Amino acid sequence: MHKDTITITITMPPDAPATVLMGRGNLAVTHTYSGGVPGTHNDKHALQAAYDKLTALEANSPQVPDLPEPTKPERKSKPKRKAKDDAEPTVEIPLAKGTRTVPISRVKLTGGETDAAAYQQALACAGRLIDSGLWDGESPLHIPDVYALGRKMKPYQTKELALFTLEELLDAPAAPKVIPMPTATDEPDDDDEPTLEAVELAVGVTVTWAEDVTDTDDELIPFTTGRIVEIDGDEAWVESPEATADTWIATTHLITIL
Q: Which of 52, 53, 72, 230 makes the best surface tag, with the fewest CB within 10 Å?
């Protein structure tokens, strides 16, 4: 359709005023009047009035803003997958300040211990190893003898464990250490000093010592007979016959019971 073409639509309801719709191009106006017979005087006046409205509108046409470009809907991120039900369980390692959560397989007992007490002992040792800087908590920690590890670490403050390497602490000797020690004969001569003879101290041997002997922390030992559990240099870890107490003691104080 040509841009100068005017379109006219007249609506004449039987029980309402008539309406003229007049448009050209993108603009249009309406004019309502009392209807009559098409082509009569009323129609001509209505057409003129509608035309006047249209020309006035074209002379001062409204500014229609450009429609914004349609925006693409935001792409929703995929929901994170839920952890599988069979995910590896974790354990809490006690630290000097707080705890650290690690997979349960991170700390392994390779000496055959299966009881809960042994694993709790392993977690306690692991916490001290983390605090001392000997273990990062990320690499696997394989403990061949958790009770021996606990006994090795017990005499030392956590910061003192840095004097060792992790391998030295975890090392479980395949055979017990044997140390030759002097001991008195059964019947010493009254006038002479007791004759001393070399005997062997080893893990599992029962020993005794004087009542006034102190342990490596310079504290009086509450028992005087015990069984050697571990030997480390010139010190031995002994426990009472009832296994109700244990301590480190210098091997120079020990006398084997034959």
A: 72
Cβ count near 47 (within 10 Å) = 17
Label residue 151 left, alpha or beta by phi (over 0 means left) and psi (-120 to 50 means alpha): alpha
Say how far residue 220 (Cα) sits from the centre of its chain. 44
Give the amino acid at 195.
T
State how far the Cα of 184 lies from the Cα of 192, in Å rounded to an integer. 12
- The tokens describing 56, both together, are 């006035």
Q: Which residue has the tokens 């603009």?
A: 27
**What are the backbone dihedrals phi and psi of residue 53, each rounded to the nearest 5 degrees, phi first?**
-65, -40
**Hey, is 222 helix, strand or coil?**
coil
- The confidence score (pLDDT) of residue 236 equals 85
Q: How far apart are CA 219 and CA 213, in angstroms?
A: 8
Structure tokens at 43: 């129609």
Interval 106-137: pLDDT, tens: 999 988 888 888 899 999 999 999 999 999 99
195 contacts 184 by C-beta, under 8 angstroms:
yes
Going across the sheet that includes 6-11, the strands are: 6-11, 18-24, 27-33
Nearest-angstrom CA–CA distance, 255 and 194: 13
List the structure tokens of 62. 């409204």
Name the CA radius of gyration of the chain, rounded: 51
Alpha helix (H) residue ranges in the chain: 41-59, 116-132, 146-153, 166-170
Write the CB contacts of 213 (distance below 8 Å, at least 6 apart in sequence): 220, 221, 224, 249, 253
**Do the beta carbons of residue 89 and residue 106 sit within 8 Å?**
no
